[in-house]
Write a structure and sequence with these properties.
The chain is an alpha+beta fold. The chain is 31% helix and 28% strand. A three-stranded antiparallel beta sheet has the order 2-1-3, with helices on one face.
């Protein structure tokens, strides 16, 4: 999002998820790449209520590791006062891309 009320909080979410996100070794060794989109829902206390893949990478291993990163980052920080809603619905993309030199 680019909404200034949400940017600081979503940046924290992104970094927390990123700290749990790994590129599976099996996928790297087998040159598996892909991009997927997930959906997750948080309550105002930062608790994960739902998480799922909405557009698959076409590789189960990549999809599972993206969902695992979100689940492992739970719980998230409570919403700051600037976010005056009971729930946040978030779509997040994960791009697994190998770097060749």
């Amino acid at each position: 999002t680019k909404d200034t009320a949400y940017v600081p909080y979503t940046t924290v979410l992104k970094e927390k998820i990123r700290s749990h996100w790994v590129y599976p070794l099996y996928a790297q060794e087998n040159l598996i790449q892909g991009t997927l989109i997930t959906f997750f829902r948080l309550d105002s206390g930062g608790n994960l209520l739902d998480v799922r893949v909405v557009r698959s990478s076409e590789y189960e291993i990549l999809d599972k590791h993206a969902l695992k990163a979100i689940r492992s980052a739970n719980p998230f920080p409570p919403f700051p006062e600037s976010i005056a809603v009971d729930f946040l619905n978030i779509n997040a993309s994960f791009a697994y891309q190998l770097q060749f030199e």
